[in-house]
Amino acid sequence: MLTADHGVIRAFVKKARRLKGTSAAATQLLGYSQLSLFRNRDTYTVDEAEAVDIFFELRNDIERLSLAQYFCEICSVLGTEGSSAADELRLILNCLHMLARNHNLPPVMIKAIFEMRMAAISGFMPELHGCLRCEDTEGEMFFNLNEGVIFCGKCAKNGCKPLPKGVLAALRHICSCPLERVFSFTLPDEGLRILSEITEQYLMAQVDHDFTALAFYKSLFEF
Ligand SMILES: [Zn+2]
Fold this sequence. Notes:
Layout: E1 2-3, E2 7-8, E3 11-12, H1 21-26, E4 32-40, E5 43-53, H2 62-78, H3 86-101, H4 107-121, E6 141-144, E7 149-152, E8 161-163, H5 165-176, H6 189-206, H7 212-219
Parallel strand pairs: 3-5
Antiparallel strand pairs: 1-2, 4-5, 6-7, 6-8
């Protein structure tokens, strides 16, 4: 579980099968819950659980559900035990809420926002102000995914990803705007597709991990 005060912790639910109603939902995947934990050395056990929000709507849509599981997997990989994760928790709650209830926002946009903002708050904030070498901020830019820096067309070397202007503006917005405004931008479908490809590749470049939920999500679109 991802907790605001203690980061990612692993806990047992001893009477899971005997819990009923909201207590049972409170300890399931994707549940946002108020929990009382009992700690014995390094082992936590859930004493009491009360569901606050279980994002039930996600279960009706395999694409949105698979993304929600991917978000959880990212949290479990990037999260650490013992440190505050209040920002991470707010981000995933906002993204799950949008995934479940805002069908005006394309899932691929929520995916891109979560990947990039989560990377940024987990210590992988890219430097997107301007070209690292000549400090140009106006021309077409190219993203070095491994270094997390951008270059202009004159300074870019092979292997950098071209960044259309709208996509770069969206990346800057996602990384640095106040959280409550993170969903407030628009891009045409093609721009969103490029944005999502770039945020995913950036996250993979920073975090060396094979995300099984991402592989499943992508398998839904391969025919
Ligand atoms: Zn340059």
